[in-house]
Write a structure and sequence with these properties.
Elements (H helix, E strand, L loop, with lengths): L8 E5 L4 E7 L5 E2 L7 H11 L11 H14 L9 H10 L6 H17 L2 H11 L6 E2 L1 H9 L8 H10 L3 H5 L2 H17 L5 H9 L10 E3 L1 H4 L3 E5 L4 E7 H13 L4 E7 L2 E7 L5 H4 L9 H10 L8 E2 L18 E2 L1 H7 L2 H11 L1 H11 L22 H12 L5 H18 L7 E7 L4 E7 L3 E8 L12 H12 L10
Parallel strand pairs: 1-7, 2-5, 3-4
Antiparallel strand pairs: 1-2, 6-7, 8-9, 8-14, 10-11, 12-13, 13-14
Helix pairs in contact: 1-7, 3-4, 3-5, 7-9, 9-10, 14-16, 14-19
Length: 494
């Protein structure tokens, strides 16, 4: 997409409602943008922070003079005297240092802002840029995180609470008694200035503000472009393809992993869950060799090209004289089904050679919609020139094995189901699995799928005491499959 998605909020759909999930930001902050800022918030902030807002040109000489005298007396900047325009300038400059030089730059920036924007635009920019604690910036991020609602749905007490936080977000969040005292102080200020009625004052006083603290994560536009189901450019909102339950399980799993791990879930061609130790975008942009996870595709291609299930192939050496590593040499020769079950490299090289290496690599390049030059002969063993991301791997598995089924794909899925039961020890007959290792076992990849969802997992950093092909990576795969795969289902491969 060409649309600038920075500041958009991503919602996950559930059966009954939508849940705010993330803010798209290429910085480290959850910086959400909105045009729907409550008028009461604008009215209140003027009364609390800058009573002469509509009459000054960016700075309040009376307030500055008062602050200047106090600061001289104390020998430091203890009082700012800042207008809303100055506070906006400070937030835009991202400089909170208490120096006279910074204060001067702030005033110059405030004057510039006043010359370029209307008063209402300044208030909108202010509420879109002000800091609300943690990594939250902008009233929309704060509203969604603290109250799980958009700013235009905040009640008057919730608006006032957010204004309490502006003086020192982390301080007041960590000191409920202090925040309550300031809440009452501001309530009285608004009553005395007649910004609220007596009945509103009483209502606010009686209201028990409860923070829901809906966690919001930051994602980049790289991730966002892969999870868009519906996009509203006016409200800067995206309804995602993410399954909230699957996403929660994946995120907890990734966070708890001892080693760096990345996971993605695909259902019907859509990303329904994604996370990584290195940030969710890693799943889409990081590409590597994928090892034996390509063998199921080659199996189906070979069967389609006429390779019989009972034809035997040399499993100890290959006609191309490639030196390859094998898990074991239990048999001199294997048929194609045995070669897949044992993930035998020599047998697959010999099968591809019989069909034609070029035909096999052309099939893979077409399958992954990549240029032929990216699939050299070594891609038979999963080594491509440009690499394959686990997103590309998972989406290809989903498309290949969950649509246009023929007898060979069904046959392959049954073999992969046997691999799942054998390796994980889980007696579930409707789940397939294929693993792959690359770069001297430093990267482990697995793809497993139930009846409708494909999961791909990448683990980096091989532990020192784990030298086997699968090693305790299978424990990782087994743990994840127990979490994300529901009760066994009786069905035929679709």
């Amino acid at each position: 997409m060409n649309e600038d998605l920075n500041g958009f909020v991503v919602y996950n759909k559930t059966k009954n409602n939508k849940i705010p999930y993330a803010v798209i930001s290429n910085s480290c902050e959850c910086h959400a943008l909105t045009s729907y800022i409550p008028q009461q918030a604008k009215n209140f902030i003027v009364e609390i922070e800058d009573k002469r807002f509509y009459s000054h040109n960016g700075y309040d000489l009376m307030a500055i003079s008062r602050a200047f005298i106090n600061n001289i007396l104390q020998g430091k900047i203890a009082e700012g005297g800042s207008t809303i325009s100055q506070q906006l300038a400070r937030n835009m400059m991202r400089n909170n240092s208490k120096t006279f030089a910074r204060k001067f730059k702030e005033i110059i920036k405030a004057i510039q802002i006043e010359n370029e924007l209307s008063k209402d635009d300044i208030l909108e920019q202010y509420f879109n840029n002000v800091y609300f604690g943690g990594n939250l910036r902008g009233i929309r991020s704060a509203s969604l995180s603290y109250f799980c609602k958009e700013p235009n749905f905040l009640n008057i007490s919730e608006i006032l609470y957010l204004l309490v936080l502006l003086r020192g977000p982390n301080y007041y969040l960590n000191n409920p008694k202090k925040s309550y005292l300031r809440f009452e102080l501001l309530n009285n200020v608004l009553l005395n200035s007649r910004r609220i009625s007596r009945s509103q004052y009483r209502k606010i006083s009686k209201y028990n503000v409860k923070l829901k603290k809906q966690p919001l994560i930051r994602i980049t536009d790289v991730v966002a472009n892969h999870i868009i189901s519906y996009l509203d450019t006016i409200s800067k909102t995206i309804i995602s393809t993410i399954d909230n339950n699957i996403q929660k399980e994946i995120s907890v799993f990734v966070k708890a992993s001892k080693y760096p791990v990345s996971v993605i879930a695909i259902r019907e061609g859509k990303v329904i869950g994604v996370d990584s130790t290195y940030g969710a975008e890693y799943v889409f942009v990081s590409k590597s060799n994928v090892g034996s996870t390509l063998k199921p595709f080659l199996y189906c291609f070979a069967r389609t090209m006429g390779v019989a299930s009972n034809t035997l192939y040399n499993a100890k050496k290959n006609e191309l004289e490639w030196h390859v590593r094998e898990v074991s040499y239990e048999s001199e020769k294997l048929n194609i089904q045995e070669a897949l079950l044992k993930s035998n490299n020599n047998a697959f090289i010999n099968i591809a050679d019989e069909i034609g290496i070029d035909k096999s690599t052309e099939f893979l390049s077409s399958l992954f919609n990549q240029q032929k030059k990216n699939f050299p002969p070594s891609s038979i063993l999963g080594a491509t020139n440009s690499g394959i991301s686990i997103y590309e791997l998972a989406i290809t598995y989903d498309k290949f094995f969950n649509s246009d089924l023929n007898q060979y794909k069904i046959e392959c899925k049954e073999l992969l189901s046997r691999i799942f039961r054998h390796k994980t020890g889980l007696n579930i007959s409707n789940v397939l699995l294929k693993t792959g290792t690359t770069n001297d076992n430093k990267e482990r990849i697995a793809v497993f799928s139930d009846s409708d969802t494909v999961f791909a997992i990448l683990r980096n950093n091989n532990p020192i005491d784990d030298f086997t092909k699968d090693g305790n990576f299978i424990e990782t795969v087994t743990k994840l499959s127990k979490i994300v795969i529901n009760k066994p289902k009786d069905y035929k491969w679709r």
